Amino acid sequence: MFTYTLRRLLFAIPTLLVISFVIFALLDLAPNDPTGDLPLTIPPEVREQIRASLGLDQPFLIRYLKWLQQFFVNEPLNILESLTGWQFGDGERMRVLSWATRSPVVDLIVQRLPQTLWVVGLAYLFGIMIAIPIGVISAYKQYSIFDQIGTFVSMVGYSVPTFFTGVLLIVIFSSYLQWFPSVYDTNLRVTDFASFMAQIKQMALPVAVLALYNASQIARFVRASMLDNLNQDYVRTARAKGVKEKTVLLVHVLRNSLIPVVTVIALGVPTIFSGAIITEQIFRVNGLGQLLITAIQGADIPLVQTLTFIFAVLIVLFNLIADVLYGILDPRIRYD
Amino acid sequence: MNKLNILLAGSVAALAFGATAAQAERGTDGDLKILFWQAVSTMNPYLSGGTKEVYASSMVIEPLARYDEKGELVPTLVTEIPTIENGGVAQDLLSMTWKLKPDVKWSDGTPLTANDLIFTWKYCTAPDGGCAQAAQYEGVKNVEAVDPHTVKITFEEPKPYPYSAFVGAQSPVIQAAQFKDCVGARAPECTSANFMPIGTGPFVVKDFKPNDVISFEANPNYRDPAKPAFATATLKGGGDAASAARAVLETGEFDYAWNMQVEPEVLATMLAAGKGQLVTAFGTQVERINLNHYNADPALGSKRSTKEAGPHPALSDPAVRRALSMAIDRDIIDEAGYGEAGRPTCNIVPAPEAYASTGNDDWCLKQDVEGANKLLDEAGWVPGSDGIRAKDGVRLSFLYSTSTNSVRQATQELVKDMWSQIGVDAELRNVSASVFFGGDPASPDTFQKFYADVEMYTNNFDGTDPEKYLAEWLCDKVPAPENGWQGQNIPRYCNPEYDKLVGELAKTADLEMRAELAKKLNDMLTEEGAHIPLIHRGQLSSHSVTLEGVKMNAWDSELWNVADWSRKK
């Protein structure tokens, strides 16, 4: 298992390098321009100077190599410096700078990460917690009223887009009932019970929207996986031996059914980091998804490049984790 | 909850200050909440020319003089506006002198001096700095200090309208001490200075979260001790225009929201909640359809829309250009897409008042399908079997391009329908705004390349003087491969007569004469069909009914008088 993991990790390095090159090339080919959003009153000569000051006048390969150096050498050194207090060289290194804000990209990401983890991460957690019981009961009582309702709700949750449910919840709970705010206040600091309640309130709507979406997806997986296992011979054997129905269901069937579900959940973790672009935008949660979409709209290429590359790293990593988990959970699978 | 808070805050304030006097005092009105649906990226307008950045930074850093809501210059950091009459502008128009108010302090308590102005000029004109507002300092030869509170600006050639450098929200004064190590290529490295500039304005930045939210507090050293009325201000960004409108007009969570680009009927239902109101101001923005004077036939490949391609087979006929304009019902377009934020126009320079011509209103402002049909009949364009007019094998069928935006697409549909009534066909096309306006010479879809027969967008000019703007239609400003497609004469209009008049405008200092010339130039462009002006677009914002003192301004930052805003008691 260890050598397998090590081999996969080493293999990930060229994969990621190729990915970073492909992203960079794609962004370069895209006809976006960082001065595209500026008012037309800014004359073309000035736009040319702005482009030059962003380094856009240099050839493609030079820009790519510069980014590689900034991202793989300068940024890690910088993180190391701020963590340990040591200094490497004169401490003057070109960091990956965002074009729109002219500030280091990594600082922006660090600033945005907590909101995304809280809102999207919590929604993922709630989604899983809702999905598993619904999936189990739906499968155990297949075609019952509960199963029908569960199937209906998860179909609705899965197929109705979040930009619809999000706005719907705002109209009902913010505009009409005025229970929850429609705009996420990122300056809110939780210091006492009142501010804690305010934080819960402003997270309620976005978390609800995303939890519904996640839950409906995972509930379908749980149900399908449970149904597969319920008809297996070992279940009949257990029942024939006189094992209690509760034990059959929760110990034997559920444990076996969760193996593929765990893989699905692990593969879904990177999507937490990439945020929920639409939901974050609707509720104005300043998370990574919102950062990415504003960067794309503003043609802030270093920011888009760095963010998408980090997502690529996470996807590669969690694919590996899913594979390893699979091996641990299912003794029938051996990699070595 | 929110409503209750405001009520409570209001009554507490009323209790505390009702007894003393009606005298306003700094920081008594709590928090001012502003919402921009496009988030602010930096507080340094010299590094980002975006409107949102210019507006946000205007709360902190100020120019020497700014435009008020009527488009008139008012002094902010100076004692008076220099003119030829008061001797501030030299008779030869080669220099001007600004006199700083003696007691203006930066928010850190140090005095504002001539040195800061000289530095600001050097900062924006430094090579490799990529200063977004470099055009404001164009033609400035030198900025020098006569004494610590007097600054003399000399120009390379006579400037009849000298109010550009240090005037308006686009060119505020920054502090030399704070930015001294950030000149030229080092500019982007000064993150904290760019995010939290020290200014002379009513607010100081307390916390800046890029592309998200800015927290301000009242500047303790602001020159008017009674202002600003708000102790703090929050500027939240992001989302979309409709939800921003909802946050002010319907839920009342915010006091002010900028740029309500929302369908008029949607706004009307939100207004019914009674929590807020709309404010408009008309600047110089005009939505227009440019008519390509060169041939844009795709068969010509990369020669399209250049001089080599030759004149446009149909649009080079003045009758066609005029008929296209006459067929359009501007009132319908205005009603459907703009509502309060627009009015029909036939001018490319629609404001200020003194420059707005009525020269073409008689034939152009009202739809005249009959007249247009007659004009085309007379010019020999005959309807074919499909109803589309043609002459010598050239069909009146145009590729009509614009940027992606729901109002623009609706307008395209309307115009297509109106043109079909005079036997003209249009093929509609839309391109993502960041590509269309991106100016990438490698892309075939930019508005500069104009690989279409007609294209629609909005343009305007800064400040109140249209000289530079009118110079965009000069013959030598035509975008072409030789200049990297960088000219601003998008319709490829060329008339030596026009060029001559622009030259005259550049030499005229008398304001009345300037207005006369500008009107003449404006009329020429519409008359000869360089473009079809459609809608004079206003800026539409909304504010809470509890907010007082908002004076919507289209000539400067919308937040230009934020120091005077207060909470209704």
List keywords for this structure.
A: 336 residues, mainly alpha, B: 569 residues, alpha+beta, eleven-stranded mixed beta sheet, globular
Description:
The complex is a heterodimer of chains A (336) and B (569). By secondary structure, chain A is mainly α. Chain A has 12 helices and no strands. In chain A, helix 4 (105-140) packs antiparallel against helix 9. The longest helix of chain A is centred in the middle third of the chain and has 38 residues, at 193-230. The radius of gyration of chain A is 24 Å and the shape is globular. Chain B has 569 residues and is of the alpha+beta class. Helix content of chain B is 25%, strand content 20%. In chain B, strands 1, 7, 8, 9, 10, 11, 12, 16, 17, 18 and 19 form an 11-stranded mixed β-sheet that branches. In chain B, helix 15 (496-505) runs antiparallel to helix 16 (511-527). The interface between A and B is large, with 54 and 68 residues.
Brief synopsis:
The complex is a heterodimer of chains A (336) and B (569). Chain A has 336 residues and is an all-alpha fold.
Structural class of chain A: mainly alpha
Helix content of chain B: 25-40%
Described by its quaternary structure, the protein is heterodimer
Helicity of chain A, as a percent range: over 70%
Gyration radius of chain A (Cα, Å) is 24 Å
Uncertain segments of chain A are none
Count of DSSP E strands of chain A? 0
Strand content of chain A: under 5%
State mean pLDDT of chain A (0 to 100 scale). 88
Gross morphology of chain B is globular
The first-to-last residue Cα distance of chain B is: 19 Å
